[in-house]
UniProtKB/TrEMBL annotation:
This is Glycerate dehydrogenase. One of its GO terms (molecular function) is glyoxylate reductase (NADPH) activity. InterPro entries: D-isomer_2-hydroxyacid_DH, D-isomer_2_OHA_DH_cat_dom, D-isomer_DH_CS1, D-isomer_DH_NAD-bd, NAD(P)-bd_dom_sf. PANTHER family: 2-HYDROXYACID DEHYDROGENASE-RELATED (PTHR10996), GLYOXYLATE_HYDROXYPYRUVATE REDUCTASE B (PTHR10996:SF283). Transmembrane segments: none annotated. CDD domains: GDH (cd05301). It comes from Roseivivax jejudonensis. Keywords: NAD, Oxidoreductase. Belongs to the D-isomer specific 2-hydroxyacid dehydrogenase family. Gene3D superfamilies: NAD(P)-binding Rossmann-like Domain (3.40.50.720). Its EC number is 1.1.1.29.
C-alpha cells in the first residue's frame, strides 16, 4: 500500500523530517524558501496532507477547486493565516500545535520586558558600535520591573505562564482581561485581578503583554486610544500576532512620547517591519522567536506527525482547530 504523500512548506527540525521521511512519501523544502499562495493551492490537489507554517498564506480562494488533501497540519498554534472555514467547507481538516510552546513564548515575553525596562538592546548596540565611554551615574537609566503592575490581555496558557513568571520573579502585581472567565484551578497560586475591559488593563498597568489570537476579532485591538491609556511611562509587549497592534498608531504614540517603549516579536506584515520602528531606540525588535528553541520546535513538529499518524490510521483527529 502506498504511503500517504505529504508536503512541508518550509524546512522543519531534522529529527522531525527524518521521522516523516521514514513514515510517509514526504516532500521536504530543503532550501527553506517560502512557497507562494498559488503554489500551496496547487499542492492541495497533489498531496494527501499539506503542512504549512505561520509564514504561509492560505486564503479562501485556494480551497474552491477539487482537492486531494485531507488535512492541513499547521506547524504552530495560530491559524489566522489559514481560511479555516473555507478549508472545512472543502472537506480539509485543520490542526495546530497547542500547549508545547507555552513556556518558551512566556520566557520571550519576559525577555522583551527586561530588555525594554533596562534598555538592553540600546546598550548592546552602543557597546558593539564602540560608542560606550565607560560607567557613569546617569548613563542609560532605565526602569525596574519589581513592584510594577503587569497587564495581561488574553489569559490563556501563555498569558498565565507569563503572569506567573513576572509575579514569582519580580513581585509584579497582575491584572488581566480575558473574554471568558478563567477557571479557578488555572489561577491557583497566582494573585491576579480580572478587569472588565481591555481599556481598564491599559490604564492600570505599567507593562501590558498581549496574548490573544490574531484574526478579524482582534485586528487593531491595540489602537491609538488604548495606547494613550497606557501612558508615557508604560511599555507594550507583543508576542501574540502582529495585527493585534495598529502599527501606525504605535509609531505615532512612540514619536509623541505617549508610551515609553514597545517590545515586539511579531509584525502585521512579516517579515516586513516598518522603518519607523527599526530606527527607534525605545523599541526592541525580535524576528518571531517565541517558540524558537530546539526542544519546542521539535515538539511542535512531532505533534503534527502524531496528528498525521492518527488521521491516516482512521483515528479521531487530535488538535483539530474549531
Amino acid at each position: 500500500m502506498a504511503k500517504p504523500r505529504i508536503l512541508l512548506t518550509r524546512a522543519w527540525p531534522e529529527a522531525v523530517e527524518a521521522r516523516l521521511a521514514r513514515d510517509y512519501d514526504a516532500v521536504l523544502n530543503r532550501e527553506d524558501t517560502a512557497m507562494g499562495t498559488a503554489e500551496i493551492g496547487a499542492a492541495l490537489a497533489e498531496f494527501d496532507a499539506v503542512c504549512p507554517t505561520v509564514s504561509d498564506r492560505l486564503p479562501a480562494e485556494i480551497f474552491t477547486g477539487g482537492h486531494r488533501a485531507r488535512i492541513l497540519g499547521n506547524f504552530g498554534v495560530g491559524v489566522n493565516h489559514i481560511a479555516v472555514d473555507a478549508a472545512r467547507t472543502a472537506g480539509i481538516e485543520v490542526t495546530n500545535t497547542p500547549g508545547v510552546l507555552t513556556d518558551c513564548t512566556a520566557d520571550l515575553a519576559l525577555t522583551l520586558m527586561l530588555m525594554l525596562a533596562r534598555r538592553a538592546g540600546e546598550g548592546e548596540r552602543e557597546v558593539r558600535a564602540g560608542r560606550w565611554s565607560g560607567w557613569r551615574p546617569t548613563h542609560m537609566i532605565g526602569a525596574r520591573l519589581s513592584g510594577k503592575t503587569l497587564g495581561i490581555v488574553g489569559m490563556g496558557r501563555i498569558g498565565l505562564a507569563t503572569a506567573r513568571r513576572a509575579q514569582a520573579g519580580f513581585g509584579m502585581r497582575v491584572v488581566y482581561y480575558n473574554r471568558s472567565p478563567v477557571p479557578a484551578e488555572s489561577l491557583a497560586g497566582l494573585d491576579a485581578a480580572r478587569l472588565d475591559t481591555v481599556d481598564q488593563v491599559m490604564t492600570a498597568a505599567d507593562v501590558v503583554s498581549l496574548h490573544v489570537p490574531g484574526g478579524a476579532g482582534t485586528a487593531g485591538l491595540i489602537d491609538a486610544e488604548r495606547l494613550a491609556l497606557l501612558g508615557p511611562e508604560g511599555f507594550l509587549v507583543n508576542t501574540a500576532r502582529g495585527d493585534v497592534v495598529d502599527e501606525a498608531a504605535l509609531v505615532a504614540a512612540l514619536e509623541a512620547g505617549a508610551i515609553a517603549g514597545a517590545g515586539l516579536d511579531v509584525y502585521a506584515d512579516e517579515p516586513r517591519v516598518p522603518e519607523a520602528l527599526t530606527r527607534r531606540d525605545d523599541v526592541v525588535l525580535l524576528p518571531h522567536l517565541g517558540s524558537a528553541t530546539r526542544e519546542t520546535r521539535e515538539a511542535m513538529g512531532h505533534m503534527v506527525a502524531d496528528t498525521l499518524d492518527a488521521v491516516f490510521a482512521g483515528r479521531d483527529v487530535p488538535n483539530r482547530v474549531g
